[in-house]
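Researcher: Here's a chain I'd like modeled. Treat it as a single chain, no partners, no ligands.
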Amino acid sequence: MQPPGGGAVRIERDSLGEVAVPADRPWGAQTQRALVHFAISTERWPPEFIAALARVKRAAARAHRAGGTMPAALATAIESAADDVIRGGHPDAFPLSIWQTGSGTQTNMNMNEVLASLATARLGETARVHPNDDVNRAQSSNDVIPTAIHVALAIALARAVEPALHALAAALREREQAFRGIVKIGRTHLQDAVPMTLGQAFGGWASQIERARRALVPALADLMPVPIGGTAIGTGLNAPPGFGTAVARELAEDCGLPFEPASDRFALIGAHDPVVAAHGALTAAAVALLRIANDVRLLASGPDAGLGELRLPANEPGSSIMPGKVNPTQAEALAMACVQVIGNNTSVAMAGAGGMLELNVYKPLLAHAALQSARLVADASHSFTVHCVAGIEADAPRIAAHLSRSRMLATALAPHIGYDATARIVHRAIDAGTTLREAALAEGVGGDDFDRWVDPAAMAGLPPR
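Model: Modeled as a single isolated chain. Structure tokens:
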């Protein structure tokens, strides 16, 4: 097999025979075969997964050295090679598509071959490190790939998603306090409803984000058990006793997260319920974020012919043809990210259900979709916080004008004069084009009573005027 494009090559061998590999690439025969056989689309394994996979390989080498199942010099060379990858070195050494075998074997072998090449360079050509016998010792793609997925996704949730949601909730709470005294008209069915404060709207949004953040806690906990040590199907064939426990312990120390050996490795090789559940938490966050993005867009619509109750930061010109236009760009970017996450949830659910007997064969798709969703929720939340929420201002005069014109303030009359009489006042005001107060007085309500009963601030829960 010859690589496309010509150029200098070297001959590598695997169990199927010889393969020509570009001379300047650190991978071996199986990676080269995969480049030819899985030239599908442009999606590649994300860097955070590659780093997590290298962490698993490093932890395995350390466990072998500690357990005496690998010569110390060999284990150290593999560890050192993995260190390079974890630090972001050799980014071009992992070129494979996620659209490959459902176990992720090609990418596991890609990592094995690259680490073997780098470790061999450290030991010298006389001591060739073997990708299967050495780097992959006591491992299978079937337990390594899901372990790496757990590691990568757990790190993403703990170090990116959770802080981003925390910061957004804090920014919304700050705006809640800033706007706590501004009374506005609430809306249901996109129609006028009863009064509330603008602060209450922001507080409701903050509570949604805080709930989404809390939902990450059990999702993260479910990712802590890892199936490493189960090898091909969960029995642990070809792994020394205690190997999985030792690798999990190394991963916990390395990542600062309480990874532990799974009590049932079969369940985490044949299925990926914890990944599905974690993505469910990301989807719930996306649903809340999408609602908030849409509310912000509506309240900022206009500014002249819309609601116009919020003023958003003018981060960039909004139009290539309409001068002076400012668009809700951050809300739109957030909304698109959320729609992608929600779409990913369908993929994750179907992929999670793709366990066939002893092996789930959608592992690459699960890694791709779950990690993309984590990035989207974290990055879009951060951007929305910094470039939108922190700079939102209220248009108090416009809010007051909308409030004063709303006939739904009549709701406060119903406990005093009844629903039907209140409805007559509302319809009279609409038909005659008068104010609500004028219509109420025409229907026999006293002016002092009207002023006392229809107090927008009190209706919103603030002290009566």
